[in-house]
Amino acid sequence: MTQNNNVSSNSIAVLIDYENLALGTGKPTKKKPGLHQNAGPRPDINLIFQRLLKMGRIVSKKAYCDWSRFADVVTPLHELGVELIEIPDRAVTGKNSGDIRLAVDAVEMCLTREPIDTFAILSGDSDFSPVVSKLKEYGKYVVGVGMEASTSSLLADNCDEFIFYEQLLAPQKQEAKKPAQKSRVQPSTTRTRRRVNKSAESAKEGAGGAKENAQESDGK
After folding, report:
1. Which end is more exposed in the chain, N or C (fewer Cβ atoms within 10 Å of the end residue's Cβ)?
2. How many angstroms separate the CA atoms of 148 and 57, rounded?
3. Of the candidates 143, 183, 179, which has an alpha carbon nearest to the alpha carbon of residue 161?
């Protein structure tokens, strides 16, 4: 499906597999290469929202996780208007009930909330590929967002559009470099100002000397 070119008319439901995003920013463990078991820097969810807002209005925001593991992000997510869905630790349930709940909510909204024409799934987990296919069957536009290192190519290829989180960070990194570049040119600017000041002083002294000579000539 192609998304409506009239951005203001697009309604987006955002479903966040928060654990997948948080672990996706970490480094692979030595015991299980390719798996991100340790969480890295917290993903900037607002940055992702700002990118999605260019596609339309966000009408629903839900995040799924065992929030006792990420208690530091609960308040910031609440402030962004995200509904936090509490999911028991998979060690207790024996399965990833977060993935199941997210998939069920996606299909339920697809069938009961017709105005929603776009679904944004924030995860790189290949388990969501069947959900993406089902949403597309019902004519929905599906956007995926995930980390490059931890995103399944199966999921990325199945989405209508996939955005890598690192691409969103690139402009910020470029902006961060600008002050450092500016500071390097400051010494040369200072030297230029000094040369201008010295020239002005020399010109002033020259003018003063000429005035004195003119006065002496008048006296004679």
Report:
1. C
2. 26
3. 143
